[in-house]
Amino acid sequence: MHTDTERCVRAVQSKDARFDGWFFTAVRTTGVYCRPSCPVVPPKPENMVFHPSAASCQQAGFRACKRCRPDTSPGSPEWNHRADLVARAMRLIADGVVDREGVPGLAARLGYSTRQIERQLLAELGAGPLALARAQRARTARLLIETTALPMARIAFAAGFSSVRTFNDTVREVFALSPSDLRARAPKNPHHTPGALSLRLPFRAPLNPDNLFGHLAATAVPGVEEWRDGAYRRTLRLPHGHGVVALAPRPDHIACRLTLGDLRDLPVAISRCRRLLDLDADPVAVDDRLRADPVLAPLVDKAPGRRVPRTVDVAEFAVRAVLGQQVSTAAARTHAARLVAAHGEPVDDPEGGLTHLFPSPEALAALDPETLALPRARRTTLTTLVRRLAEGDLHLGTESDWSQTRARLLALPGFGPWTADVIALRALGDPDAFLPTDLGVRRAARELGLPSTPAALTARAAAWRPWRAYAVQYLWATDDHPINLLPV
Pfam families in the record, alphabetically (predicted)? Predict the structure, then answer.
């Protein structure tokens, strides 16, 4: 979008928050860059330069605005609905792969050379993978500076910097303030919980929290997830340890309270929480497309801004999808809770309600199938899945190619369209995944006068592309969808 100068100027002059994260405005005369909704008087159009990323602005020598704090804007929705190389690379960078494995590790995961990745990221985002990772480190550093009392040296290494000097130089360059000055300007939090980080996760309005938090609470696996005091809480398996997060909806943000075993996991934890709640979606674009259908329009108008509840762990969700085949939500939770109690990794929860991490594929690959209270065919499905995941023959991750991964899933025994599509929808993040065989979707379609057979409904849903996953949320809202009794 940043190449459409006229449209960008209009967005800046109207202070349109819907475009925060889509592009950034660098101002030649002041040397700062802002989000489109910055509250200051808009600069003259001839002084504006538009960039596709904060890293691109920083590469060009601009520093972050102290008023609008562009580093805290929602992420670009481009990386959610696209499946090309750049989008997959951005999802991996957000998950901290460059900091942990370097650019060669990023390239290996994507199956391209480092030169190809750098060239494509530079062409589209104006910054390479190292610059993008550096911008993320700067954001992490600011969060830790403003929300903790940790010594600056510890913050520097927790944020991923190789030295305190590099940390100091980067913070001054990006924010035009020293780390100490940033901390002095930060608002004091009188309700701070010792050992926890309290953050605000921004989103694009509107956001309907009912389907998000209602679904997560209804499907919560005891020991791993819970709903307590108006917040969804769960354990997190992270690269350097484990964590516990509490997420609660607020009118203009999601309140996030994180307890981490290793502070280096902060950016990864934030990225996964945002992904879980689909916070980088563009609800206006989604709802406009679905509202064009006269059948869906009343559903959208009644509760706009529905998101797709996703997951913090793709492998975990794949296991839970198999456990949920042809059974009720309550039964699926029971099966998952048994696996957690028998094979999950115990954790300490400061608030006492959570007990385990969900079992890893490696742990589940060693289980005795005869101990599973499942039909024999589903035991085979589950054990095949976890063995393939543990051995690396099947990889599910943020960088996965959606269509190729779906095909690989369908090749596994016991995997039908519903299981593959629900994994694509909830775990892989495909915004166009569709569930025409789901009982709840078919019931809603029948009640609304839409075709209810899978083939006819799929044909009818072509007009909803590329947002069919969101159409599923609106259809599910008309039905409890407690069980999937159709072919898996």
Answer: Ada_Zn_binding, AlkA_N, HhH-GPD, HTH_18
* Burial of residue 194 (number of CB atoms within 10 Å: 0-12, 13-18, 19+): exposed
What residue type is 72 in one-letter code? Answer: T
Q: Residue 214 and residue 246: Cα distance in Å, rounded? A: 15
Number of other CB atoms surrounding residue 455 within 10 Å: 9
What's residue 74's pLDDT?
Answer: 78
pLDDT grade for 318, boundaries at 50, 70 and 90: very high
Q: Are 19 and 36 in contact (CB under 8 A)?
A: yes
Average pLDDT over residues 116-132: 92
Mean pLDDT of 77-97: 84
In the structure encoding, which two tokens stand for residue 10, read together?
A: 């209009």
Region class of 19: left (phi > 0), else alpha (psi between -120 and 50), else beta: alpha
Choosing from 8, 20, 34, 57, the catalytic residue is 34
The residues facing 243 across adjacent strands are 236, 260
Catalytic residue flag (residue 68): no
Residue 177, CB half-sphere, CA atoms under 13 Å: how many? 19
Residue 292 CB partners (closer than 8 Å, separation 6+): 463
| Closest by CA position to 320, among listed 301, 298, 342, 335 | 335
Higher pLDDT, 196 or 355: 355
Which one, of 340, 327, 322, lies nearest residue 222 by Cα? 340
20, 313, 432, 438: the active-site residue: 438
Catalytic site includes residue 99: no
Under a CB-based contact definition with an 8 Å cutoff, are residues 159 and 144 in contact?
yes
Q: DSSP 3-state assignment of 280?
A: coil
Which pLDDT band, with edges at 50, 70 and 90, does 427 fall under?
very high
Q: pLDDT tens-digit profile of 211-256?
A: 899 999 999 999 999 999 999 999 999 999 999 999 999 999 999 9
Instruction: Report yes or no: 476 and 444 within 8 Å, Cβ to Cβ.
Output: yes
Closest CA relative to residue 8, chosen from 31, 37, 29? 37
Could you give the CA distance from residue 159 to residue 71 in angstroms, rounded to a whole number? Answer: 15
For 286, 431, 462, the CA distances from 292, given in Å and listed in that order, are 10, 18, 13
Q: How many CB atoms lie within 10 A of CB 246?
A: 23
162's tokens: 């190789």
359 in Cβ contact with 343 (< 8 Å): yes
